[in-house]
Design brief:
The chain is of the alpha+beta class. The structure holds one RNA strand.
RNA sequence: CGGGGCGUAGCGUAGUGGCUAGCGCGCUUGCUUUGGGAGCAAGAGAUCGUGGGUUCGAGUCCCGCCGCCCCGACCA
């Protein structure tokens, strides 16, 4: 039993000045965590109880799935990370240190290398596969800007598992097993979450999904529809309209449009001087051609032009995900000088494409389909072409998902309009493929005695982050409201008043409930009722029992923290009623 | 790394060059009080982030440094 008279706990009446998001404010106010340095926190007794419950649930579900737990050091040597290139690739985010001999070490941000090497040292046959091993480990990332308290720290606890399979089918099975285990885990944690497909970019195009806990404080933006579609913004697929038959479409015609270097000025001039027969022109009638430079890791670079409806901006994150490993950057004056055929502000697709004289690759938004007619640059200053029809008057080299996704855009699966939302990444499952196995030479012999590179998956759950995510999703203006399984206790007994009978009854009740198998937090302090009630609401134990003034009538009160509902029950029935309230 | 804000007691804060740095919470002691962060009284607790400068005099003005928070960039 936890007695508040001796519990190491100090709640704060006021919000800490440096806390912004609800989980940070409440975890500090309720005395569950304390900051020791930016992005580094200590867990105090009640907080550590919650943390351990989360960790326990994660571990139970991993074990239930048949995965095996190991434990690596957090302090790691440089060499394995040198081999995979991450010693340098990870950059400043990698927390490095030296031992007394000047040797390079790091505090592990993630452990792909160590797992791969461990398996390499032990296994050498396909008969040993599949294998999944995991650990629950403190990880370190020297974040440029830790923020939001526990949500994004420099030290945090992650469950990371790794699967090892001989072939792609095996990898898919290991991936699916993790997906199932994660669903069970997050359900038990009481987290609302969505599973979004994530871009794995240039990492080989393999499957990757993120588990996001929707909440205001989330750092990841995703979109979802009423009908259940959810995806990372980077992964959203644009719904393309049906192509239009080319017959009978008006012929293209070039018009003078002086001083119209922007879409706004163009639309204004078009409406004033070349009005549409039936309706006003809008930005969506124009085809904007955005010029970019792609820089490749090998040092080469080349231009790329993206054609998209004039009412859309290029979303840099989506673009980067599409062109990786190349890095896009704006086209500079110098670049324009090298390409005199590009007339700044008046670029049109007639001169673009790999097959054209310019040879510049031209990719369009999926909304630009054959038969659509556009107002676009005529490749000379002050002139635009109207009714330029895709597939008749110009061609393109391919499509690209680089345009911004807007609220109201249709979901690709037809499940309704998309709305953007924010979420906390609480889990990520990822088919790594053979990248690490190849780099570290993890091979096994197959049935034919041939050496084959193992294929891997990596799967993470932010354990400490999940505590904060739960707090984000389960609180009100009075404090925390823990889901039962992660709560620091099942029942919080509040004794009010100074009547010795109150305290003796409360004590007996606490002992009886503990005997019945409940985890009991008992407020036996000599504090005023207001203090105790407020603390009980701040701490967020799901069931609260008040033993106080109604005891003279032989009654105690049972409150449900989440709903606020309360009922009075006779003392004699209290144990049974509390057990019922706790779902026992 | 860019932009903005802030460093005064454990926490939250006031203090626009002039007396002994003020208040609330929390803490200690005593008495009273006990169904919504109690009352009275008496206390303890601060090198005002740090180094330098200006001044008769600096928490207050100037410069450097350090640290923290927020937005952005970054983020397996």
């Amino acid at each position: 039993m936890l007695r508040m008279s001796t519990l190491f706990l100090r709640t704060l009446r006021e919000d800490p000045a440096d806390a912004e998001v609800p989980s940070h404010r409440l975890l500090v106010r309720a005395g569950l965590v304390r900051r020791v340095a930016p992005g580094i926190f200590s867990w105090l007794p009640l907080g550590y109880l919650v943390y351990r419950n989360v960790e326990r649930i994660v571990r139970e579900e991993m074990d239930a799935a048949g995965f095996q737990e190991v434990h690596f050091p957090a302090l790691l040597p440089r060499e394995p990370y040198e081999v995979t290139g991450r010693w340098t690739e990870y950059g400043d985010t990698l927390l490095r240190l030296h031992d007394r001999k000047g040797g390079d070490y790091l505090l592990g941000p993630t452990h792909e290398e160590m797992f791969t090497l461990l398996v390499k040292g032990e296994y050498s046959s396909y008969k040993d596969l599949p294998l999944v091993i995991y650990q629950i480990q403190t990880k370190y990332r020297d974040e440029a800007r830790p923020r939001a308290g526990i949500l994004r720290g420099r030290e945090f606890v992650m469950k990371d598992s790794y699967s090892f399979d001989i072939d792609d089918e095996g990898l898919q099975r290991s991936y699916d097993r993790h997906r199932e285990a994660y669903i069970k885990t997050f359900d038990r944690l009481g987290l609302e979450y969505v599973i979004v497909s994530a871009m794995s970019g240039a990492m080989g195009g393999s499957a990757s999904e993120e588990f996001l806990a929707p909440c205001e404080s989330g750092e990841d933006t995703f979109v979802r529809s009423e009908g259940g579609y959810a995806a990372n913004v980077e992964a959203v697929v644009t719904v393309a309209p049906e192509p239009i038959a080319l017959e009978g479409l008006p012929a293209a015609h070039v018009e003078d449009t002086p001083d119209t270097p922007t879409i706004e000025t163009l639309v204004a001039v078009a409406n004033a001087e070349h009005p549409h027969p039936d309706r006003p022109w809008t930005a969506a009638d124009t085809l904007k051609n955005v010029v970019l430079r792609l820089d490749y890791p090998d040092g080469t670079s080349r231009p790329l032009i993206i054609g998209l409806p004039g009412d859309r901006e290029v979303d840099m994150k989506r673009l980067e995900a599409q062109v990786a490993p190349a890095v896009p950057s704006p086209f500079e004056e110098d670049d324009f000088t090298k390409h005199p055929e590009l007339v700044k502000g008046y670029i049109g697709p007639q001169v673009l494409g790999k097959e054209s004289p310019s040879g510049i690759e031209y990719l369009v938004d999926p909304r630009v389909v054959p038969g659509t007619a556009w107002i676009t640059g005529a490749n000379e200053p002050g002139r635009h072409v109207f009714d330029l029809v895709c597939g008749r008057d110009f061609t393109f080299d391919g499509t690209i998902e680089a345009a911004e996704v807007r609220d109201g855009d249709p979901a690709p699966d037809g499940s309704g309009p998309l709305h953007s939302a924010r979420g906390i990444e609480i889990g990520h499952i990822f088919q790594l493929g053979r990248k690490y196995a190849e780099a570290l030479d993890l091979k096994v012999l197959d049935v034919n005695g041939k050496s084959r590179v193992v294929t891997m998956g990596s799967y993470g759950i932010g354990v400490s982050r999940a505590v904060a995510a739960i707090a984000e999703q389960h609180h009100d203006d009075k404090g925390l409201i823990w889901p039962r399984e992660v709560a620091p206790a099942d029942v919080h007994i509040v004794a009010t008043g100074k009547d010795p009978a109150v305290f003796s009854t409360a004590e007996e009740l606490a002992l009886a409930l503990e005997d019945a198998g409940l985890r009991v937090l008992y407020d036996d302090r000599k504090a005023s009722p207001g203090v105790k009630f407020n603390d009980s609401e701040l701490l967020g134990v799901p069931t609260i029992v008040v033993v106080g003034k109604r005891l003279v009538d032989g009654m105690v009160e049972i409150k449900d923290r989440a709903s606020g509902q309360r009922e009075e029950v006779p003392v004699a029935a209290a144990v049974a009623e509390v057990l019922k309230a706790c779902g026992r």
